[in-house]
Design a protein that fits this description.
The longest helix is centred in the first third of the chain and has 79 residues. The relative contact order is 0.05. This protein folds into 3 domains: 120 residues, no CATH class; 150 residues, Heat Shock Protein 90; 128 residues, Rossmann fold, CATH 3.40.50. Strands 2-4-5-7-6 form a 5-stranded mixed sheet. A 5-stranded parallel sheet has the order 9-8-10-11-12, with helices on both faces. The protein has 16 helices and 12 strands. It comes from Rubripirellula reticaptiva. Its EC number is 2.7.13.3. InterPro entries: CheY-like_superfamily (IPR011006), HATPase_C_sf (IPR036890), HATPase_dom (IPR003594), His_kinase_dom (IPR005467), HisK_dim/P_dom (IPR003661), HisK_dim/P_sf (IPR036097), KdpD_sf (IPR038318), KdpD_TM (IPR025201). It is found in: Membrane.
Length: 536
C-alpha cells in the first residue's frame, strides 16, 4: 500500500511539472504568433524593412514571464517566422541577402545577451529569496534559542530554590529548637537530602557541558550487557517503590556481549528507567526487555506514563527540552537525562529511539547496541578452588604492620575556612589531630612543624597553589612517605594528570562524603605505615 501511494505521488508530481512546463513554453509560441499577426498588419508600410524588430518584444516578454528556456524558443521561432514571412524570397527559410544576415546576427546576439541578463537577474532574485527565507528561519531559531535560554534560567532558578528552601527552613528550625536529638536528626536528614539533590543538578549540568565540548571518554571493554542492566535497576528500583509502580524486567539467561563502558551503560539505562518512572503516575507500570538479534542487542523500556505528541519524538533528546513546560513543573528536573542517554548511546555506536501513540498513552524507548563479534566464553570457578581460597590465612604478609596508639596527624589546606573547619571537626571526632592552613606557603610551614601523616589539600589556593606546594613537599626527604590528597573542584583528565605529576597520591573532586574521604585517608595511612615499617 505504501509503495503504491508513493508511486502515485511521483506520477502526480510528474504530471504537474509537465503541465507547468507546457504553460511556460506556450508563452513563447503565443507571443511569437501575436508578433507575426501585428507585423503582417504593418507589411504595407514596412514591406521588407525591419523584419526582426517586433520579434525582440516577443523574446523579452517570454524571458520576463517564463524564463530563459522558453525565451530561447522564442528566438528560434522569431528567426524562422521572419525568414518565412518577411524576408525575400517569400515563403522560404533561406536568407540570401547580406543585410538580412547582418540583421539576423544582431537579432540573435542581442536577444541571447538579454536572455542571459534575465536569467542572471532571476537567479539573483531566487538567491535573495532563499537568503531572506534563511534569515527568517535563523531569526526564528534565534528567538526559539533565546526563549529556551530564558526558560532554562527560570527552570534552573526554580530547581535550585527547591532544595535551598528546606535547607533554610531546617536551619531556622534548628535555631528555634532547644537542640533536641530528634530535631537535629530531622534537620540532618533534610539538609542531607537537599544537598544530594543540588549535587545531582550540578552533575547533570557538568555532564552536558562535557558532552558539548567532547570531553567524555569511555572505558571500553567486552562486557555482558546484563551486568550494566542489573546495575541500573539497582540504582533506580527505589524510585519505583516510592511511587508504588510495578516494574517488570525480562532479561535473557545467556550473556549479551557488547563492547562498552559498564558504568556509562548503567548510567544511560538508569536515566531511561528514571525518566519512565518520573513520567508514569503512581501505581503505573514500567517494563524492561533485553534481547539480541541480527547482530544487535536491544533494550526496550515501556511505560504507562503521560506519553508524548509526535512533534516531541526528536526534540526530547535536545538539552533542556521537556514535555512538561508548565509553571507547575509537576515532574521537575532540568531536562538533560535523555540528552545524556542519547549522547552515550552514540558514543557506543548505537541508536536510541522513542515511540508513543500520543499523550496519555505511554512511551517506548529502544536502545540498539552492536553485539561483540567474538564473544567471550564464560568460565566458572571450581568449588574446590573457592574452598581453597577460603582457607587462606588473612594475616599472611601483614606482620610488617604495627599499631600506633597515638592519634594520626592530618593537615587540612583550604582557603575556604568554613569548609576547612567543618572537615577539621569531623576528622577530630574520628580520632585525628588536625591542623589548618589557608595557602601553599602556610601549608609547607605547618607540615615542617606538625609533621602530619596525611595532607588533604585544595588546588586553587591563593599565592602558591596546591600543585607547587605538593612539588616542594615532595622535594624534601622529610615528606617522602607522607600521603597527599588533592580535594578540589577541578576534575578533568588534565587536572588529574597534573595532580599526579605534582606528587599527589589521590585526586578527589568536591563534594565528597566524609565517610568516603575518611576511608581514603585510612587506606592511604595504612599503606604509609607499611612502607615506613619496611624502611625501618
Amino acid at each position: 500500500m505504501q509503495g503504491a501511494a508513493l508511486n502515485d505521488e511521483v506520477l502526480q508530481r510528474g504530471i504537474r511539472n509537465w503541465t507547468f512546463n507546457i504553460g511556460r513554453y506556450s508563452i513563447a509560441i503565443f507571443s511569437t504568433a501575436i508578433v507575426i499577426w501585428f507585423r503582417s498588419l504593418l507589411q504595407p508600410w514596412l514591406n521588407e524593412e525591419c523584419p526582426f524588430s517586433l520579434f525582440y518584444l516577443s523574446v523579452l516578454l517570454t524571458a520576463w514571464v517564463s524564463g530563459s528556456g522558453p525565451a530561447v524558443l522564442a528566438i528560434v521561432l522569431g528567426t524562422l517566422s521572419a525568414a518565412q514571412f518577411f524576408i525575400p524570397p517569400a515563403s522560404s527559410l533561406l536568407i540570401e541577402g547580406v543585410p538580412e544576415l547582418v540583421q539576423l546576427t544582431i537579432y540573435v546576439i542581442v536577444n541571447c545577451v538579454a536572455v542571459l541578463l534575465f536569467d542572471r537577474a532571476e537567479r539573483q532574485r531566487r538567491l535573495a529569496e532563499n537568503r531572506a527565507t534563511e534569515n527568517v528561519r535563523l531569526g526564528t531559531d534565534l528567538q526559539l534559542a533565546d526563549k529556551r535560554k530564558d526558560e532554562f534560567l527560570a527552570l534552573l532558578a526554580h530547581e535550585l530554590r527547591n532544595p535551598l528552601a528546606p535547607i533554610l527552613s531546617s536551619m531556622a528550625l534548628l535555631e528555634r529548637s532547644e537542640g533536641s536529638t530528634e530535631t537535629v536528626r530531622r534537620v540532618r536528614e533534610v539538609v542531607s537530602r537537599q544537598t544530594e539533590h543540588l549535587i545531582r543538578i550540578t552533575d547533570d549540568l557538568l555532564e552536558v557541558s562535557r558532552f558539548c565540548r567532547g570531553h567524555i571518554e569511555l572505558l571500553v571493554e567486552q562486557l555482558d550487557l546484563r551486568d550494566s542492566i542489573r546495575d541500573a535497576v539497582e540504582m533506580i528500583e527505589g524510585a519505583f517503590a516510592e511511587k508504588s509502580q510495578r516494574f517488570q524486567s525480562v532479561i535473557p539467561d545467556s550473556p549479551v556481549w557488547v563492547d562498552g563502558d559498564r558504568v556509562r551503560l548503567a548510567q544511560l539505562t538508569a536515566n531511561l528507567l528514571g525518566n519512565a518512572s518520573k513520567y508514569t503516575p503512581a501505581s503505573g507500570h514500567v517494563c524492561l526487555f533485553v534481547d539480541q538479534c541480527n547482530g544487535f542487542a536491544h533494550v526496550t523500556i515501556k511505560d504507562s506514563g503521560i506519553g508524548l505528541a509526535a512533534e516531541y519524538a526528536e526534540r526530547i533528546f535536545e538539552p533542556f527540552v521537556q514535555v512538561d513546560t508548565s509553571r507547575t513543573r509537576e515532574y521537575g528536573g532540568l531536562g538533560v537525562g535523555l540528552t545524556i542517554a542519547k549522547r552515550l548511546i552514540e558514543l557506543h555506536h548505537g541508536n536510541l529511539s522513542v515511540e508513543s501513540r500520543g499523550p496519555g498513552l505511554g512511551s517506548t524507548f529502544t536502545v540498539q547496541l552492536p553485539l561483540h563479534p567474538n564473544p567471550l566464553v564464560e568460565t566458572n570457578l571450581d568449588t574446590s578452588d573457592i574452598n581453597r581460597l577460603g582457607t587462606l590465612d588473612l594475616n599472611t604478609g601483614c606482620s610488617g604492620i604495627v599499631s600506633i596508639d597515638q592519634p594520626n596527624k592530618l593537615l587540612l589546606v583550604d582557603d575556604n575556612q568554613d569548609a576547612a573547619k567543618m572537615l577539621r571537626d569531623l576528622f577530630e571526632s574520628s580520632g585525628y589531630q588536625v591542623e589548618l592552613a589557608a595557602d601553599g606557603v602556610e601549608a609547607i610551614n605547618q607540615a615542617l612543624r606538625f609533621r602530619p601523616s596525611v595532607i588533604v589539600m585544595d588546588i586553587g589556593l591563593p599565592g602558591m597553589d596546591g600543585y607547587e606546594a605538593a612539588r616542594q613537599l615532595r622535594r624534601s626527604q622529610h615528606f617522602t612517605h607522607v600521603k597527599l590528597i588533592a580535594l578540589t573542584g577541578w576534575g578533568s583528565k588534565q587536572d588529574r594528570e597534573l595532580a599526579s605529576q605534582a606528587g599527589f597520591d589521590l585526586h578527589l573532586v568536591k563534594p565528597v562524603a566524609f565517610d568516603e574521604l575518611l576511608n581514603f585517608v585510612r587506606d592511604l595511612e595504612m599503606g604509609r605505615r607499611q612502607v615506613s615499617q619496611a624502611v625501618n
